[in-house]
């Protein structure tokens, strides 16, 4: 690691921390919560986090599949979408329990 890469890494970390702090200040001083907007924002945030996780995991999955397959990228992407479909089916099949 050279010294020129430390500055941008620290700047990006600082910006991410400030974005979290600014968002929490806005939420703290908001007069009342808009449930629909909150649901959309949380869904978008969860989608971004899941996307980043998959983008980080997909190359290692492709590397592992290269040993046993001639089309590792295709298999990895198909497996990703099959997993998403499976999660959607499980989400639809498990009943929602209302708190007492």
From TrEMBL:
<keyword id="KW-0812">Transmembrane</keyword>
<feature type="transmembrane region" description="Helical">
    <location>
        <begin position="70"/>
        <end position="90"/>
    </location>
</feature>
<keyword id="KW-1133">Transmembrane helix</keyword>
<feature type="transmembrane region" description="Helical">
    <location>
        <begin position="6"/>
        <end position="30"/>
    </location>
</feature>
<dbReference type="Pfam" id="PF02535">
    <property type="entry name" value="Zip"/>
</dbReference>
<feature type="transmembrane region" description="Helical">
    <location>
        <begin position="37"/>
        <end position="58"/>
    </location>
</feature>
<dbReference type="GO" id="GO:0016020">
    <property type="term" value="C:membrane"/>
</dbReference>
<dbReference type="InterPro" id="IPR003689">
    <property type="entry name" value="ZIP"/>
</dbReference>
<dbReference type="GO" id="GO:0046873">
    <property type="term" value="F:metal ion transmembrane transporter activity"/>
</dbReference>
<keyword id="KW-0472">Membrane</keyword>
<protein>
    <recommendedName>
        <fullName>Zinc transporter ZupT</fullName>
    </recommendedName>
</protein>
